[in-house]
Every structure is written in C-alpha cells, then in structure tokens.
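Researcher: I'd like a candidate sequence for this fold, 115 residues long. If you have to choose between options at a position, lean toward the conservative one.
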C-alpha cells in the first residue's frame, strides 16, 4: 500500500503564495505519475496538476502560469507551488499517486484564499 500525507495548506490573501507538500510512504515502487487535485464544498473534485516520473507536467487551464508542480524522488515527495492565489482557488487539495493499475489518495489539506 501507499500512504500520502499532504501539508502546507493555510489561509492566504488574494495574490499571495503557498507551497503544498505531499510525502509518500509504503510501497512507493512503481509510481509513475503524481498529481494534485482539489475539491470545494459541494463541488466535484478536479485536476490541478500532474507530474510523471520523467518530469513531464500538465496543468489545469485555471492554474496555468500560476502554479508549478515538482517532484523529489529521493524524498518521495511532490510539491505544488501556488502563486497569485485567487479566492476561486479555495478548496481542499488532495495528493494523488498513480501506478499502472492503482491510484492512491491523501487525506487533503485546506487552502483558503480570502481577504
């Protein structure tokens, strides 16, 4: 099994920055893609960004040019640097790790963007 623990969430003002971290543990062998998803109350969970083991990244249009995903294989950790934050970014952010046939989820970290 794989365990994912997110951290780094909090309250920031519009235009501010935040860096999320997700540490993976357990049977981490075989993970080829990791990503960040978010979910606001009453809303469907949506993709934010993904990164492959080769370093290829993809972003949702809503966060492109503002967010940056990175990965530290030595630490089994994925990061999400969030800049120019908007109130619309407020959500619980979840880390995801994908193997060929299995996906794993963290428990989430709250990000609130408000004046």
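Model: Candidate sequence:
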């Amino acid at each position: 099994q794989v365990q994912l623990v997110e951290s780094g969430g909090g309250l920031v003002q519009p235009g501010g920055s935040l860096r999320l971290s997700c540490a993976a543990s357990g049977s981490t062998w075989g993970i080829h893609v990791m990503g960040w998803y978010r979910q606001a109350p009453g809303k469907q969970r949506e993709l934010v960004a993904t990164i492959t083991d080769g370093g290829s990244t993809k972003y949702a249009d809503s966060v492109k040019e503002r967010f940056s995903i990175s990965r530290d294989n030595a630490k089994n950790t994925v990061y999400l640097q969030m800049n120019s934050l908007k109130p619309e970014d407020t959500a619980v952010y979840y880390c995801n790790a994908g193997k060929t046939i299995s996906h794993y989820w963290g428990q989430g970290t709250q990000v609130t963007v408000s004046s």
